[in-house]
Design a protein that fits this description.
Elements (H helix, E strand, L loop, with lengths): L18 H6 L3 H8 L22 E4 L10 H10 L10 H10 L8 H4 L1 E2 L9 E5 L7 E6 L5 E5 L2 H27 L3 H5 L3 H13 L4 H13 L2 H28 L5 H4 L17 H15 L6 H15 L1 H12 L15 E4 L18 E2 L3 E6 L4 H14 L9 E5 L10 E5 L5 E2 L3 E8 L2 E8 L8 E3 L3 E7 L5 E9 L1 E7 L2 E4 L1 E9 L10 E10 L2 E9 L2 E9 L9 H7 L8 H9 L5 E7 L3 E5 L16 E2 L26 E3 L3 E4 L6 E3 L12 H14 L4 H12 L3 H5 L1 H8 L7 H15 L17 H23 L1 H10 L26 H11 L18 H16 L3 H4 L11 H5 L4 E2 L17 E4 L6
Parallel strand pairs: 5-12, 6-28, 11-29, 16-25
Antiparallel strand pairs: 1-2, 1-30, 3-4, 4-5, 7-21, 8-20, 9-10, 9-27, 10-30, 12-13, 13-14, 14-15, 15-23, 16-17, 16-22, 17-18, 19-20, 20-21, 21-22, 23-24, 24-26
Helix pairs in contact: 2-3, 6-10, 6-12, 8-15, 9-10, 9-12, 13-14, 13-24, 16-17, 18-19, 21-22, 22-23, 23-24, 23-26
């Protein structure tokens, strides 16, 4: 049966997939002739900025391209003939080509695969200049190579106005989509496809904000941050004015994004209809989406409780808890660390005597419904499935992640200056969620990437003499409380008083459009809120009816992080690593932040880490009672005491830093499972450590280390050799198994990469070995662990941590064809268990030996049997095909797709496990 591409989170957005059908009933030539509205922009000269201390050694890349807006005519041309608007995909090719070009890389060739990220635009590279809305205090220059906006203002207001105008020029449709996602209103805006339903439901469940809630966030952020808060408000208003000026200009000039026509908001003939102006609460709605996706670590306490109960049911309380803890790997001694100098940063550690735990009665947990009163396609089978997927994704925030960083101190580089290669993995979309820009104005001097609609400041990029980037950290800032019900299912005990829950609702309806032909439907999303956050589950605890709520420290505080980003863009604020760390402290999203200038490197882990009551175990639900609340928690403002900056993992001038969402430091427990002996962070650690030991690191060598890790199969590099050691512990006599072992060994010897035979071949070298491992891994994991754990406990732990995350699997916040791979899986469990069976030393072992019950010969029999089955599994079964790929097409199954969030489509590219936006930097001097 052909596999459907699973769509989760962002890629579930319905886009103009019916445009091709629409073309059949319209004259494309007539439409294009009437709709093309070229802009005439005079060329101008611009000098390279004098405030740039990178010496031409800063580079960046962000596929597919800077231009994320397309008129209706351009969309029709793209759908019919594949024609691309200018600068819509000119960064996709260089990005993709690094996969086969990195082995021959030199410093001189880096910008073959990246953009020159120097400040300014040389006069011979100026493509256009404009003064938005006729303003005299700001100019937007775009370069010829990539069409990136370089915004220069003589006033602060003009600078931010220009940033808003440029953002709308490049991402207006995407910005509009996500302000509706953030409000739970996507289906009404873009259509009722099941994918749209699922997307809005996922975010509404986690952030059911009213307009008053959004405004309150702004008011609080401004009130609590003095002059910087006032400046942020002024910057946001100027930014909004720029966005709205472009909306008016593009509407009257009829060059607005064509998706507005295809979704029924504008008429292509009469121009009737409106594009709503943006308002300041839209920025908070956008921030809530981005923060939920990439910067809200924690959650999962109910699933943790279910697996703990399963373990205790099988083994008894004491042994069951020991087994559970061994799989949880809270502080595994073999885990790769970002701060690896031995310094300890205790957080969310296991208490000696847990207090206030509210574990559910076995089998009593049910998920809180979100959708009510569904009609039409809102009540269809596909809608129900989308809703279930959205619920699962929303409640598994503990498994969010992505992004990597490689930073080397100047002590170990050829030049004596630090080198960094870093960036966020935010998935692949068309248009991309991020956009590139340079902003130069009073109090602002930066170039880099920002999330569309939030680009009043550069969020990841470079200043005059420093660069910074981030990876998702995932420490636990979300707790689950059990509130005892009283009177009925919608009242609960709060500090001894029976208190009514607050009901928050959003009713949406939709009808067919050209872009989305989904028949008419409607539903109401309903969330019940308590002082301890929204209700997520119902259960009984000791026979008492409870509601499980989730409370995160960033809830009602998504706007607060604007201050930290403002600081990072201010050249008068950031003058060294300590200033950088101070700025990062003002960001309440859970991120790992990295810094490099010409002399120093630095690291800081951000997020509002609540100070928990003594004895509370952050892994499990606790009673909603004053004794177990965060210290000095105020439910009205959702503020509390937070751990001080010194308690967050931080460092200056360590020999090197690596991060791929791995453990930050000793004793610092993060919410995701899987921080064990084998983690994808090891792929960076092993390569960078080797470079540092040899010394003389260059930008080329560090890019090559990243690119090499980006093609590595983690299972094959770090676990497969041990599996083969067991298999080869006796002579292999079965010819099928012997052939498979030979192919797998040859692949390991060749480097264990998933890479093309040659550039553009769309065929993997060692293709058969890759197919065998892809088929073998799920079989061997189940055969290795399920007999010993039992089916109930095995299933419960797989709900905490999936067994695999291969490139062709649908996983993570962006689904299949998403690039990011090998973050979550059972590779550490297999590694530790196989080493134990082999009699090798294991620090932090599992509580028992599972493969073959600890018998080497029995374990070998299991591996042999499952390997033989895998070897005989056809490629069409391993890679069953989807809407993009035919069954058996291994390369295509792995390939990266720029998922359409608008009307422009792009071709897929070969797999890389790599940041979406990426910088390569080496500063030569400092102010």
């Amino acid at each position: 049966m052909p596999r459907r591409t699973v769509r989760t989170t962002l890629d579930r957005l319905r886009t103009p997939g019916r445009v091709t059908g629409f073309l059949k009933s319209a004259s494309i030539c007539v439409l294009i002739a009437g709709l093309l509205s070229p802009l005439t922009q005079a060329t101008a000269t611009a000098a390279t900025a004098s405030n740039d201390y990178c010496g031409g050694q800063c580079s960046d890349i962000l596929p597919p391209g800077e231009n994320g807006n397309a008129t209706l005519a351009q969309i029709l041309l793209n759908q019919a003939f594949g024609t691309q608007p200018s600068h819509a995909e000119d960064q996709l090719g260089p990005y993709a080509n690094l996969a086969t070009g990195y082995s021959g890389l030199t410093d001189a060739k880096i910008n073959t695969f990246f953009n020159d990220a120097s400040f300014g635009v040389s006069s011979d590279q100026v493509a256009s200049t404009e003064s938005p809305a006729g303003r005299s205090d700001v100019t937007i220059v775009r370069d010829k190579k990539a069409g990136i906006p370089h915004i220069t203002g003589t006033t602060r207001y003009g600078t931010e106005f220009g940033a808003g105008y440029a953002a709308a020029e490049d991402r207006l449709w995407l910005m509009d989509v996500f302000r509706h996602v953030g409000r739970g209103q996507l289906t009404t805006f873009a259509g009722g496809a099941a994918s749209n339903q699922g997307l809005e439901q996922e975010f509404y469940r986690n952030a059911p904000y009213s307009e008053a809630d959004l405004q309150a966030q702004i008011d609080n952020a401004v009130a609590n941050n003095g002059a910087r808060g006032q400046q942020a408000l002024a910057d946001a208003n100027a930014y909004l004015a720029g966005i709205n000026a472009y909306i008016d200009a593009s509407d009257s000039g009829r060059y607005f994004p064509g998706e507005y026509v295809l979704t029924g908001h504008k008429d292509s003939i009469t121009n009737a209809g409106t594009i709503d102006h943006f308002k300041i609460t839209d920025l908070v709605a956008l921030g809530a989406v981005i923060g939920s996706l990439f910067g809200a670590g924690g959650g999962g306490e109910v699933n943790n409780a279910i697996s703990l109960i399963a373990a205790q049911s099988k083994y008894g309380v004491a042994q069951g808890t020991k087994v559970w803890e061994s799989f949880r790997e809270r502080n595994d001694p073999e885990a790769v660390l970002t701060v690896h100098n031995g310094e300890s940063f205790p957080y969310a550690t296991k208490p000696a005597d847990a207090q206030g735990e509210a574990l559910p009665d076995t089998g009593s947990v049910t998920t809180e419904p979100l959708v009510y009163d569904a009609t039409g396609t809102g009540a269809s089978q596909s809608a129900t499935a989308a809703s279930q997927t959205a619920t699962t994704t929303a409640l598994s925030s503990a498994r969010r992640g992505m992004s990597n960083a490689l930073v080397v101190s100047g002590k170990y580089t050829a030049s004596g200056h630090p080198i960094a290669v870093f960036g966020p993995q935010t998935g692949y979309f068309a248009p991309q969620l991020l956009m590139l820009q340079e902003i130069q104005g009073p109090g602002i001097s930066a170039r880099g990437a920002s999330f569309a609609g939030l680009s009043m400041y550069v969020e990841l990029g470079r200043g005059q003499d420093y660069s910074w980037s981030a990876t998702t950290s995932g420490q636990d800032i979300i707790d689950t409380y059990a509130v005892e019900l009283c009177q009925d299912d919608y009242h609960y005990l709060y500090h001894g008083t029976c208190t009514a829950m607050d009901k928050v609702e959003q009713t949406n309806s939709w009808k067919p459009t050209t872009a989305d032909g989904t028949a008419a439907g409607s539903y109401t999303m309903r969330v019940w809120k308590t002082k301890y956050g929204p209700v997520e589950y119902r259960a009984t605890v000791g026979g008492k009816k409870v509601a499980y709520t989730t409370l995160r420290s960033s809830y009602m505080h998504e706007a607060d992080s604007i201050i930290g980003f403002q600081m990072l863009n201010d050249p008068d604020y950031v003058k060294g690593p300590k200033d950088f760390q101070s700025a990062a402290q003002h960001i309440n999203y859970t991120f790992n932040w990295f810094y490099a200038d010409s002399s120093h490197t630095a690291y800081y882990n951000s997020g509002d880490n609540p100070v928990r009551a003594s004895g509370v175990d952050a892994e499990f639900p606790v009673w909603g009672q004053s004794a177990y609340e965060w210290k000095n928690w105020n439910p009205t403002t959702n503020t509390a005491d937070y751990t001080p900056a010194s308690a967050h993992p931080n460092s200056v001038d360590q020999d090197y830093y690596v991060s791929w969402n791995n453990k930050q430091a000793l004793d610092y427990t993060t919410a995701p499972w899987g921080d064990g002996s084998v983690h994808r962070g090891n792929l960076l650690e092993d390569r960078v450590k080797k470079l540092v030991a040899a010394g003389g690191v260059t930008r080329t060598k560090l890019v090559q280390a990243m690119a090499d890790a980006a093609l590595a199969d983690l299972r094959a590099e770090d676990v497969l050799p041990k599996l083969l050691k067991v298999v080869n512990s006796s002579t292999v006599t079965d010819s099928t198994v012997a052939d498979a072992v030979s192919k797998l060994q040859a692949w390991v010897s060749a480097g264990a990469k998933r890479t093309e035979t040659s550039a553009g071949s769309k065929k993997y070298a060692d293709a058969d070995a890759i197919r065998i491992l892809d088929a073998w891994w799920p079989l061997l994991v189940k055969a290795e662990f399920q007999p010993g754990l039992g089916s109930d406990l095995y299933t419960a732990i797989t709900n905490n941590l999936p067994i695999d995350e291969s490139p062709s699997a649908a996983h993570g916040p962006t689904g299949s064809h998403a690039g990011s791979s090998f973050q979550y899986g059972w590779w550490s469990y297999v590694d530790k268990d196989i080493r134990a069976v082999l009699g090798e030393s294991v620090q932090g072992p599992l509580a028992d030996k599972y493969c073959g019950g600890g018998s080497l010969s029995s374990c070998r029999d299991i591996l042999m049997s499952t390997l033989k089955t895998a070897a005989g599994t056809s490629a069409s079964t391993v890679y069953p095909g989807d809407s993009l790929c035919s069954a058996g097409d291994q390369w295509c199954a792995d390939s990266i797709v720029q998922r359409t969030l608008g009307g422009i489509k792009h071709g897929n590219i070969s797999w890389q496990n790599r940041p979406t936006f990426q910088q390569v930097v080496e500063y030569t001097s400092h102010r």
